[in-house]
Amino acid sequence: MNMQLTKSQIGLDGVPAAETVLSHVDGERGELIIAGDHVAALAAQSSFEGKIFVRPQAQKTEAYQLNHNLLLSEGAVAHAKPNLEIFADDVKASHGATFAQVDKEQLFYLKSRGISTETASQLLIRGYRQEMVNQISHAVIREEFQNGL
Q1: Residue 42 in contact with residue 73, Cβ under 8 Å?
Q2: Where are the domains of the chain?
């Protein structure tokens, strides 16, 4: 079984961006990638909870889980709870989460080139989310996400 889940969400003031992903790997040689990408602004809260459950017969499974969070204001909050439950002996698995704000030096660099603060911020946010969009294998869906950024 090969499966990739990629989600990208934006939360605004009072509107939470939340997701829970639960995946089971049953057969041998499964590959599973779960990636979540959240952007939280104003007083938004973002929550990611992912769980990969690898059954004893799912030997040689590769499972990866990663959650990125970009906080655009002091009031924005993000929570991440990546989980792995592994009951097989021969498995390669990892999980992690990152939290960041718009880099002030990058923002300064763009502004010093004559780009407005708002446009510079939008470019940096778009670049942050682009990594997830690039992982979408279906061209039409990837293009729709690209146009929506």
Answers
A1: yes
A2: 1-101, 102-149
